[in-house]
Amino acid sequence: MPPADPEPQKNRPDCRRTEADGIATHHAFAIDQKRYHKVRRFFFRVLLHLLFWDILFAYPVLRIFRTAPLARWQKLARDYRKLAVEMGGVLIKLGQFLSIRVDILPPEVTFELSGLQDNVPAAPTDIIIKQIETDFCRPVSEIFADFKHEPLGAASLAQVHQVVLPSGNPAVAKVLRPQIHILVETDLAAIRKAVGWLKLYKKVRERVDLDWLIDEFTTVTRKELDLVAEGKNAEQLNETFSKNPHVYIPKIFWDFCSPHTLTMEKVDFFKIDDLEAIEKSGISGVQVADKLYRIYMEQVFETFFVHVDPHPGNLFVKPLPTIEESKAGVVEFTPDDPVSYQSGRPFQIVFVDFGMAVTIPERLRTALRDYVIGLGTKDAHKMVQAYINAGALSAHEKVDRIEEAHEALFDRLWGVRVGQFRNLAVSEAKFFLKEYRDVIYDAPFQFQADMLFVMRAVGILSGLATHLDPDFDPWTKTIPYAERFAKAKLNQGWMGWQQEVETIVYHVLDLPGRLDRVLTLARQGKMSVRNSFSSDTKKQIHQLEKSIRWLGWMVMSSGFLIAGILYHMHKPESELGWALLGCALLAFLVGIKKNWS
Question: Residue 267's pLDDT is what?
């Protein structure tokens, strides 16, 4: 075993002391004008598309020439995906961010964007080395005992190189791409410009808080450039799971960090989606799926600090020695060690890449627990109330419809294993789009970015678990948490029960007085009943009124038109025919204005 590396020394440049030199200075960076104009042109083209097809061609008569909106927006999403793959940087991050915004985009569009992978060509190694040497003020050969020129992986914001520390310990260095701050600020400026254009469209402005959305995305993106915060996230996650023997977090070597470099322990054991390699060592894929899901449930519902980017490149399975191997002197395995098959081999789940880790706010924790209680007990009302309590849904007229949709989900999908969703996806999507189109497209859900990333993480997690265990059933895995939280709620103590009892007693004591007032009004003949239409009924009545008005104007316009044509045919020299035709056109235009005012 190589000797341990020394503790960080104050006189050496480490990323904790030079934090102000990094992400905090983003406002000082200029932007790449050529890139800015290219990105802005794409967004301007999207805006013109919106104005032409979704606003202008939404008017009567023109509407018959309008093509299907979903097909058009799917094509735009594909075009954006091509642009993002070509240019990389924040555009990939934006696509990934929008792919989880199921609260504002239709599923057909989010599906197209979900194909974006954060995997781009690597930057030239000599430029990476020059950046490291500038940060550390000395040659890379004096920093690391060895620096591998071929990167292990390259993403839109950074790339990873294998290194060897002076002590001989293998490690990896995550290095931000050169000029990445300029690239990020350029893309953010173009995106903010596009959002400014979108705000001019009232329907979009009323549906989505665009300022909040762009501020949220900007914050998330800039956080990923803060390698200091990423290192601290790793240490916080390590502290959180310090007593969990099934989790392993790599050590951060702070003495070899800088504003643009984060160096950590090398832990690339078996990739979590490499089921063949995992099972060849004797590790059960079913057990890996079960432990991975439990670890995430613990993060979401108990520790409230969540690693929200669990894709296969960020999760590994570390094999541990069996009892027999330990007796033979095997202490542990390194990532490059061969591992023989031993049935029932113990293991640990290894996490890397901590740039996307979120803390669930206090006010959302109770709502989350209520949600999982509702899920475990198939209580649609409790789940929808959890949305409302979390601030993700307004308490409006569509609450009943949303509850109906959740009940339909329980009826149709409860007990269905994740692996079976693929076969049911098309038919179920058609059913819910037909029966609950108003809920899917009009319900004013507004999730915070933190919660959306958690939801995205759980979604990716379900896919990984199914790959490891085709019979993986998330329902049965979640029910124990629902039962535990429900019991905890029942055992909150006398103060919680006292409030409930006081409320009930108050209403019971007030009931005779209320009943007497109702009977008195009825006896005096002064009782009146007020009712109102539901939101959906009001919309239908409004549409009917518009249709009747439109029909009236069209009948008038047609009458003038027919009279004008007949009169013109019999007396072409008379101006009355032309006047009647003019009245037909005028009635048509007035009808359009009245119908759309």
Answer: 94
Cβ contacts of residue 505 below 8 Å, gap of 6+? none
Percent pLDDT > 90 in the chain is 24
Number of C-alpha atoms within 13 angstroms, CB side, residue 290? Answer: 8
CA–CA distance, 597 with 592 (Å, rounded to integer): 8
List the domain boundaries for the chain. 1-18+124-177+227-266, 23-119+181-225, 271-361, 370-447+473-490, 535-596
CB 583 within 8 A of CB 553: no
State what percent of residues in the chain have pLDDT above 70.
70
Long-range contacts of the stretch 379-385 (C-beta < 8 A, 24+):
380/404, 380/406, 380/407, 380/410
Number of Cβ within 10 Å of residue 214's Cβ equals: 19
- If one counts every other C-beta atom within 10 angstroms of the C-beta of residue 387, the result is 23
Q: Is 525 left (phi over 0), alpha (psi -120 to 50) or beta?
A: left
> Which tokens hold the place of 266?
């090398």
Cite the DSSP H helix spans in 266-314.
275-280, 285-298
Q: Which residues pair with 261 in a beta bridge?
A: 175, 258
Residue 288: pLDDT above 50?
yes
The CATH superfamily assigned to 1-18+124-177+227-266 is Phosphorylase Kinase; domain 1 (3.30.200.20)
Q: Specify the DSSP class assigned to residue 229.
A: H
> 166 φ, ψ to 5°?
-55, -30
**CA-closest candidate to residue 191, choices 24, 38, 55, 29:** 38
Categorize the per-residue pLDDT at 365 as very low, low, confident or very high, splitting at 50, 70 and 90: confident
End-to-end CA distance of the chain: 79
Kindly state the tokens that stand for 388: 């409302």
Q: Cα–Cα distances in Å, from 264 out to 164, 173, 353, 524? A: 11, 7, 10, 82
In this predicted structure, the answer to whether residue 146 has a pLDDT above a threshold of 50 is: yes
- Count CA within 13 A, CB hemisphere, residue 26: 19
User: Above 60 in pLDDT, residue 492?
Assistant: no
Using CA atoms, how far residue 35 sits from 32, 41, 191, 222, in Å, is 5, 10, 12, 19
Least confident among 137-141, 228-232, 292-296, 487-491: 487-491
Q: According to the 3-state scheme, what is the secondary structure of 396-447?
A: CCCHHHHHHHHHHHHHHHCCCCHHHHHHHHHHHHHHHHHHCHHHHHHCCCCC
Banded model confidence at residue 343, pLDDT cuts 50, 70, 90: very high
C-beta separation of 116 from 84 below 8 A: yes
On whether the CB atoms of residues 389 and 370 are closer than 8 A, the answer is yes
Smallest Cα–Cα separation from 480: which of 359, 284, 301?
A: 301
Phi and psi at 158, nearest 5°, equal -155, 170
